[in-house]
Specification:
7 helices, 34% helix, three-stranded parallel β-sheet, 203 residues, globular, mainly alpha
């Protein structure tokens, strides 16, 4: 496990080699946990007998951002607290979206679409609380939405490739009519997919 840890840390930001080593982890039965903004570090680490994906491995998240997140985070921070932290270090809405897509906020219990839809209100809260006394600003309520709407009828080619946020309980939209080639390739959390609307066209 320590050997694989060293190998992974030697190829951070190299997607091809990282995928190869992650494939090796599966062969050896080593558990790789998705990134978690509360505990992930700049490099891969071992915790509770599992390897944890690093924040620096997330698309477009810089080493400087990672260092500032690690330096500034505290226990029991919620989504709004982290958005406030991220905006204070110059992170953009796209950066926050990338962190959500990488599953770094899955600990909150909200699906990715819910978190993405609440970014704007979280950023507005962050700006107000930075300008005014924190105690005078009430945090917004999270507005929950379904991951997929009934209007979704197709999932494109490689749409969710290597998305670690999709788990065993994933259910596609009920009126899905097209599933693109390799749409869920590399989604290690999915063991099977139940298609509710049959037949469908597969790319």
């Amino acid at each position: 496990k320590e050997f694989m840890l060293e190998m992974l840390n030697s190829v951070i930001k190299n997607d091809t080699k990282t995928k190869n080593y992650i494939s090796d982890l599966r062969k050896y039965g080593i558990n790789l946990l998705k990134p978690d903004i509360r505990v992930s570090e700049e490099k891969y680490i071992i915790k509770d007998n599992s390897i944890i994906y690093p924040l620096s491995g997330i698309k477009n998240i810089s080493e400087l951002q990672v260092k500032k997140i690690i330096e500034s985070r505290k226990d029991n921070m919620d989504f709004f607290d982290y958005v406030k932290l991220l905006t204070s270090i110059g992170s953009t809405k796209k950066d926050i979206t990338n962190l959500i897509d990488a599953s770094a906020f899955d600990y909150t219990g909200y699906n990715h679409k819910t978190l993405i839809d609440n970014i704007d209100s979280a950023v507005n809260y962050a700006k107000l609380s930075n300008d005014l006394d924190d105690d005078s600003i009430e945090k917004p309520l999270i507005k929950e939405v379904d991951e997929f709407t009934k209007d979704v009828v197709s999932i494109g080619e490689k749409a969710f490739e290597n998305c670690s946020g999709l788990g065993a309980g994933f259910v596609p939209p009920s009126n899905l009519s097209y599933l693109g080639d390799s749409a869920f390739a590399g989604c290690t959390g999915i063991t099977e997919i139940e298609i509710q609307n049959k037949p469908i066209e597969v790319g």
